[in-house]
């Protein structure tokens, strides 16, 4: 039950007092600090594999702290009042706004934080990677959410903009802060509330992921519908991505995952399908059909057509069954 970090800032350590309370299976540390009209209280519960920290304060001026990290950590942070700025949390500057939460991990030996707000309240849970892995591997959906972190642990911030703290999470945090029990019952109570908070946060993250996935799916179907009508002269991949509000990497990856082919593979397939319909149902010359569907080279068109259908375009043209132009339009539209 060792702490995850230690404060190094002399202005803080020289003006604070810490009281330790050892109980069955847990340790409680209360640190009070006063200086220049500012005051803050840190309440830390140390349990096996995780640490619960509540910071409350009246900060007329920003409180800047240098934290020395004792061991790699993952953390769930809930900014109830005020805000926190970090110079390089998980390798980049980060701000924790009032009413927002986040999940992150870092391995840097030292970090710098600035705490602000005349009424400041933040709550955090630091946990070991081992405990995080045990929890995540117990749920298949969480594995999909955090699989990359398990396979290749590295610093991360789950949501750069954070997400809102739910009423249920606020209630759970207040239950931890105001825990009425002592001894073994207190330990079990804090463990249970920690698990409740972990489950609630993972549920919210999964819901965000599903909503994002749904939006992506709608966008990709819109791209496919666009290509169904613009296969002959499609825009470049970059222009197509910009047209639908995404980037080319996300478009390429998502399109292949959803439709089982690349964007240009789909375009080629669409061109050949329409070409087969035109050759079967109209009297248009083969070269004209090739041009209409987007093939500038008739020889190349013949080659890929035969590879796809096992027949040359002229062999399809000699097929006995034809439809009138009106029927052709209905067939293609269907």
Shape designation: elongated
Helical coverage, percent range:
40-55%
Number of domains: 2
Class of the largest domain, according to the CATH hierarchy? Mainly Beta
Averaged pLDDT: 88
Q: State the secondary-structure class.
A: alpha+beta
The ordered H/E elements are EHEEEEEEEEHHEEHHHHHHHHH
Note the beta-strand portion. Answer: 25-35%
Biggest beta sheet attributes: 11 strands, antiparallel
Q: How many H/I helices? A: 12
Using only C-alpha atoms, the radius of gyration works out to 30 Å
* CATH-assigned fold name of the largest domain: Jelly Rolls
The CATH superfamily of the largest domain is known as Jelly Rolls
Quickly give the CATH architecture of the largest domain: Sandwich
* Low-confidence region ranges: 320-334
- End-to-end distance: 67 Å
Number of distinct beta strands:
11
GO molecular function: DNA-binding transcription factor activity; sequence-specific DNA binding
Protein name: HTH araC/xylS-type domain-containing protein
Domain HTH araC/xylS-type: 221-319
Keywords: DNA-binding, Transcription, Transcription regulation
Overview of this structure, please?
The protein folds into 2 domains: 5-210, Jelly Rolls (Sandwich); 230-334, Homeodomain-like (Arc Repressor Mutant, subunit A), CATH 1.10.10. It is built from 12 helices and 11 strands. It has helices at residues 10-13, 129-136, 140-151, 167-177, 183-229, 237-243, 248-259, 263-281, 286-293, 298-309, 313-317, 325-333, and strands spanning 5-7, 16-23, 26-35, 38-47, 50-69, 73-89, 92-96, 100-106, 110-127, 156-157, 163-164. Strands 1, 2, 3, 4, 5, 6, 7, 8, 9, 10 and 11 form an 11-stranded antiparallel beta sheet that branches.
């Amino acid at each position: 039950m060792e702490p995850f970090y230690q404060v190094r800032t002399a202005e803080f350590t020289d003006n604070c007092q810490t009281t330790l309370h050892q109980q069955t299976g847990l340790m409680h540390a209360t640190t009070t600090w006063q200086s220049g009209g500012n005051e803050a209280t840190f309440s830390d519960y140390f349990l096996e594999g995780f640490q619960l920290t509540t910071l409350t304060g009246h900060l007329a001026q920003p409180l800047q702290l240098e934290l020395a990290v004792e061991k790699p950590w993952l953390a769930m942070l809930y900014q109830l009042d005020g805000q926190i700025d970090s110079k390089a949390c998980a390798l980049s500057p980060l701000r924790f706004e009032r009413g927002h939460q986040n999940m992150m991990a870092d391995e840097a030996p030292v970090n710098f934080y600035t705490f602000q707000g005349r009424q400041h309240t933040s709550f955090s849970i630091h946990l070991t990677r081992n405990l995080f892995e045990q929890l995540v591997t117990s749920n298949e959906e969480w594995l999909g959410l955090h699989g990359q972190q398990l396979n290749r642990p590295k610093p991360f911030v789950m949501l750069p903009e954070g997400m809102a703290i739910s009423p249920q999470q606020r209630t759970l945090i207040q239950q931890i802060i105001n825990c009425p029990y002592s001894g073994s019952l207190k330990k079990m109570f804090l463990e249970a509330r920690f698990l409740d908070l972990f489950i609630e946060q993972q549920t919210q993250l999964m819901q965000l992921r599903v909503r994002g996935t749904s939006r992506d799916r709608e966008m990709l179907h819109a791209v496919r519908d666009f290509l169904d009508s613009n296969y002959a002269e499609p825009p470049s991949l970059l222009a197509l991505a910009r047209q639908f509000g995404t980037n080319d990497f996300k478009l390429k990856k998502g399109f292949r995952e959803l439709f089982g082919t690349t964007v240009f593979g789909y375009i080629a397939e669409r061109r050949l399908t329409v070409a087969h319909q035109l050759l079967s149902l109209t009297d248009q010359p083969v070269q004209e059909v090739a041009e209409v569907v987007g093939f500038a080279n008739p020889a190349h068109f013949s080659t890929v057509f035969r590879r796809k259908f096992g027949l040359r375009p002229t062999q399809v043209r000699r097929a006995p069954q034809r439809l009138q132009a009106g029927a052709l339009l209905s067939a293609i539209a269907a």
